[in-house]
Amino acid sequence: MQSNGVLDALPLWGLFAAIVLVVLLSVECGYRLGKYRHSRSKQEKEAPVGAMVGATLGILAFTFGLAAARFDTRREVLLDEANAIGTTYLRAGMLPDRREEIRALLREYVDVRLKAVLSNNIAEGMRQSLNIQDQLWAQAVAVGEKNPNSIVVGLFMQSLNEVIDLHAKRVQAGLRNRIPAAFWVALFAVAVFSLATMGYHSGLAGTSRSLAVLAVAFTFSAVIGLIADLDRPQEGGLKVSQQALIDLRQSMNAIKP
Length: 257
What we know:
The chain is mainly alpha-helical. Helices cover 80% and strands 0% of the residues.
């Protein structure tokens, strides 16, 4: 699984708390510097706060779009996998032999994949999934060698190959396709400098700390926390629903041998 270092080492609640702390410190440091400059130089112009905030919002929106796109991809791949397994299961019922052994393996395959996500034991689930894939392919090869001219067998092997391919796609989309660390660095850097500029503007104007600045700071923290949640498929509250696989497993039980 691709790691983002220190960010992944923190739980989501810890990451949110750290973001809030960094953001508020940025605002406070900017405010104190602005107050200091105001006491020394009355002529300094106010900073272009609107442009700074606009740049930060733009990067936030771009990074959020990346995370949301990855979330949608994970959901689509899961649905594609459920459809492919369902098709393979139906075609297995038309095989000239070994149909029950293959269907039993497919039911076990769905159980393993559901258990891996629900128990958050992804590594073990991947190991068991690959093992079942090997068994399924061995069964398919045996049927194919015995019935080399069967169209039904050819269609079954095609759908089974798609199931195996979608496993790789799901691993890539769910575990390895993460927001690059460089984006996180840029996001934090721009947010810190922009919020420090907001604080500096307040201090330079000689006003007290504005609640509006605090509201913006907490909003930035919440959005960054949401992006981090979307970027971690196995944590937080924004997880891809496994209902497609659950419905598939129930339909498998309903299909008679």
